[in-house]
Amino acid sequence: MEVERLGCMNSFVDQGSVESCRYFLARRTVLEMLRDRGYPIPAEQINLTLDEFRSEYGESPDRNRLSLSYSLSSQPNNKVHVIFCGTEPVKLAVIREIYMQVGKENLYGLILILQSKMTSKAREAIKDIFKFKVETFHITELLVNITKHVLKPRHDVLTEEEKQKLLKKYNVEDSQCGACSSICTLSL
């Protein structure tokens, strides 16, 4: 009887690696983020289950295989590339290596998924080396898609007319309004 009870509880416990689960969740959130930005992401990529992910990528996924690249169908040169960085701190040499990989491609944007900290020199190099927008996210920021949270209100970009109407309604000037941070995931 004791074995049956343990078997019952074990059915609710994930037997796979934590690493594969983290990559799975972060990858799915990035795909949803790209879809929300207008990139044509196949539904089967987003709806991939954890078991399907593990059967395709394994318990300890190769970061190079997890890389993604998508273009907007309306603007084929609007291409974004996603790279998962390793567990070691991201230093200047890593940024140069990434530049050697993607620098020759005609990219609109690059998303780096970090698992550890990035040095200040590496951050400066990103601004200097790359001629396109580079976004960095720590993998823990992507484990949950915050835009799906029930308490998070829907964010919509205002038209110029709506903006002027709102400014007039509250009797404020444009300079008095706060601006979204460039690193805020909701402002992207």
What helical percentage do the residues reach? Answer: 40-55%
Looking at CATH, which topology would you report? Answer: Dna-directed Rna Polymerases I, Ii, And Iii 27 Kd Polypeptide, Chain: A, domain 1
Number of helices: 8
CATH-defined architecture = 3-Layer(aba) Sandwich
Shape: globular
SSE sequence, one letter per element: HHHHHEEHEHEH
> Could you say how many structural domains there are in total?
1
CATH superfamily: RNA polymerase, Rpb5, N-terminal domain
Structural class: alpha/beta
Spans of at least 5 consecutive residues whose pLDDT stays below 50 are none
Calculate the mean pLDDT score and round it: 83
| Main pleated-sheet profile | 4 strands, mixed
Organism: Elaeis guineensis var. tenera (Oil palm)
Pfam family, one: RNA_pol_Rpb5_C
Main location: nucleus
Family: Belongs to the archaeal Rpo5/eukaryotic RPB5 RNA polymerase subunit family.
Q: What's this entry about, in short?
A:
Residues 144-176 form the RNA polymerase subunit H/Rpb5 C-terminal domain. This protein is an alpha/beta fold and 188 residues long.
